[in-house]
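# step 3/5: fold
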Amino acid sequence: MNKNLIYFLLAIITLVASCRKDDDNAFDKSPDERLNETLQQYQAALSGSTYGWNANLTTADGGSYRFYFSFNESNRVEMYSDFDSTTATTIRESSYRLKALQQPSLIFDTYSYIHMLSDPDGAVSGGTYGQGLRSDFEFAIDTVTADSIRLTGRFNGSRLSLRKAAQGDRAVWASKQVTNGVVNFRNYWKIHLYFKRLVYAGTQYELQFDTTLKKVSVSWISGAQTNTVTRGYYFWANGVYFSDPIVNGSANIPGFSITSYNAGTQTMNVTVNGTAATIGGFTTPINSDVRNASNRWWQRSGSGDNYWISFDGWHVNGVDDAYNIKALKNDTADFYFILYKGNTNGADAFFTIYLDQAEQVLDVENGSWVTMNINTSNGLARFNEIDLRDPAVPWPATGAAAQTRSQMYQPNGYYFVQSSANTYDQVSVADPRIWITWYWLF
């Protein structure tokens, strides 16, 4: 064989052997060993934050919840949450673990405050029965830096962001400043006028809170333009803070701290960036969506076989079910809900529905055929009665059913406000302290 060819082959063999040796050095640990090392590094990061972690959890529906976590090396975690006044006041300990699933994951493996958001019992979570608030308690770890950790929920895709707490952050919870925010915010609902505005630095910002999804819509007028943005919100340091600040030119509004409530004027005194401001009631809306909401509300039932229902009837001057319609009953059945069904023939259904407790069937007790007329320029809706559903069964002349019927036909009409994906509020133009909430449960 040619001598040069022999040298060439020997050189190739030597190179291949060298590559194999380098490869062996690059992968001197098994995949399991490398994965365990990564999990140990993540555990060290979680437990290594001296003052714990501030955490913001954003649900799949965009709601924001604030947590405080303190992890230790024994797979125990202490936590607070702004879910309610109890979770904001009482620290709770449970367990956690890090596990390799499709990727390294943080699992809260015993029931704790973070599980309450996912609880399928709507009475616990405040969300939809069967799915809760579309949150998670198992999270895939996306990124870990020196002072933050970002994670994504493995089932609903909620987002959890952890940032190292400062020395005084745990004290904000322990001194009940978060609890104060949760409790004092209840005064907001003591403002009886439906439309509420934050007045800050010469501008009025209309606030519309969705307490189920922890979201708020903020509307304001700038020049000739109406602006509306939606943010998650959470409780912190004696007040309410937004997931992202509201930006209006040079004004930057991160949220507000609640200082007091004046029951006489129904005004909440707050500070924004340390500057005094107020939240109070107003008789008209800013959010321009009212021009379209009434038509959307009608179309949703008018285009199909389902209908809107109200369990509580009219809210009047701070009182739910002001006419006490839920107390109505006949010989065999109890009041269950008010029904409104749009019909393309121009005769909409406005009925009271009773539930026969023995037979477990629904019956119409009283009802009318009505028209809904919408002003296309401003969205105001007016209702007029065409006829009784059954002339042999007239509406009562007095009492809760009569008051409910009479209120529906007030001549000044109504604003419609979409308060969530499946709820609308029908607000009296003549007196915005009066409204009825309609639910879509289909």
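# step 4/5: annotate
Residues 197 and 283 are 10 Å apart (CA to CA).
# step 5/5: archive (pending)
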